[in-house]
């Protein structure tokens, strides 16, 4: 990274929301801290409850546990550093720290795309082949699908992060974002990045479109199967089993697609930050809430667990 006007970058400065008044940043800090704690607690409860209660040992809840674990990891990668930048006492991030954050951001982001597709396939089998569902989605199949969902993140994150951070950086080291995302870091590179940008665009399209097409195919078949159910009650029950997943998919794909597929001319740094907040901060918090409020089985388990805890407290002298 030496030669000409190039300088070795040892660290980056995350500008985050520094353009906002201090009072607004303090308010954002409190808001995101509450959201962060709710996210960790909500997703941890989903994992613990679905593990503890035998009624929630079905394949759907197995994949839901994977999603909750993924959302916890996603939050731990992004939010603590963002909270530090809002307080203005921790705006710097080392070169290695930035690369590590970007690596795990790609890893968890790619894996979420494929895990949501796997969950859609699970709902397809449950609705379209209910009698064969336990046989098709046995423990071995579940494990294979989970591995297939988690694996793509490794090569994608490794190639994209290693390639980007092999470029020379020059001039400013200020990243106009609240975390080390690829587009703002790429702007600091002083070399020809055309090939990398082509790879990044093609890779993003494939990573988003392949799972998205699988989800659309699954739900097209699910919709066709639901329409064939004669009773209104049966239709409502069938739709309720996958409505939560549809809502989560919509939140994740709409917000991430708006971030990475909008024309450059319409992309201001502040608007990209707001859109990034929707899938890095808001969606991980909403997932456990959506699955809890829209799922009677989960609500009943939470209710029973709460009553047991109250009973233990009342029995304590």
Automatic annotation (TrEMBL):
Give an example GO molecular function. G protein-coupled receptor activity
Q: Which InterPro entries match?
A: GPCR_Rhodpsn, GPCR_Rhodpsn_7TM, Olfact_rcpt
Q: Which residues form the G-protein coupled receptors family 1 profile domain?
A: 42-291
| GO cellular component terms given for this protein | plasma membrane
Give the CDD domains listed for this entry. 7tmA_OR10A-like (cd15225)
Q: What is the lineage of its organism?
A: Eukaryota, Metazoa, Chordata, Craniata, Vertebrata
**What protein am I looking at?**
Olfactory receptor 10A5
Q: What does this protein do?
A: Putative odorant or sperm cell receptor.
PANTHER family, sorted: OLFACTORY RECEPTOR
Q: Keyword Flavoprotein: yes or no?
A: no
Question: Can you tell me where the transmembrane regions are?
Answer: 27-51, 63-83, 145-165, 198-217, 238-254, 274-293
Which gene name does the record give? LOC123387742
């Amino acid at each position: 990274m030496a030669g000409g006007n190039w300088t070795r970058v040892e660290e980056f400065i995350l500008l985050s929301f520094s353009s906002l008044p201090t009072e607004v940043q303090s308010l954002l800090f409190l808001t995101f801290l509450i959201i962060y704690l709710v996210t960790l607690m909500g997703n941890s409860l989903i994992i613990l409850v679905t593990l503890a209660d035998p009624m929630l040992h079905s394949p759907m809840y197995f994949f839901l546990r994977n999603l909750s674990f993924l959302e916890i990891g996603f939050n731990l990668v992004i939010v603590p550093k963002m909270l530090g930048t809002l307080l203005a006492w921790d705006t710097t991030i080392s070169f290695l720290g930035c690369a590590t954050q970007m690596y795990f951001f790609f890893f968890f982001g790619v894996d979420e795309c494929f895990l949501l597709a796997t969950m859609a396939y699970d709902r397809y089998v449950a609705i379209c082949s209910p009698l064969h569902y336990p046989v098709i989605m046995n423990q071995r199949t579940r494990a294979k699908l989970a591995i297939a969902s988690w694996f793509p993140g490794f090569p994608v994150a490794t190639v994209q992060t290693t390639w980007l951070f092999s470029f020379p950086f020059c001039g400013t080291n200020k990243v106009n974002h609240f975390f080390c995302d690829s587009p703002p870091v790429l702007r600091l590179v002083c070399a020809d990045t055309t090939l990398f940008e082509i790879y990044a665009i093609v890779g993003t399209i494939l990573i988003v479109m392949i799972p998205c097409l699988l989800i659309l195919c699954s739900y097209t078949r699910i919709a066709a199967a639901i329409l064939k159910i004669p009773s209104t009650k049966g239709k409502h029950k069938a739709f309720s089993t996958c409505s939560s997943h549809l809502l989560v998919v919509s939140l994740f794909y709409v917000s991430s697609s708006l971030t990475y597929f909008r024309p450059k001319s319409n992309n201001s740094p502040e608007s990209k930050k707001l859109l990034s907040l929707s899938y890095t901060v808001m969606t991980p918090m909403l997932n456990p809430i959506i699955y809890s409020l829209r799922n009677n089985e989960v609500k009943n388990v939470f209710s029973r667990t709460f009553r047991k805890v109250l009973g233990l407290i009342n029995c304590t002298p």
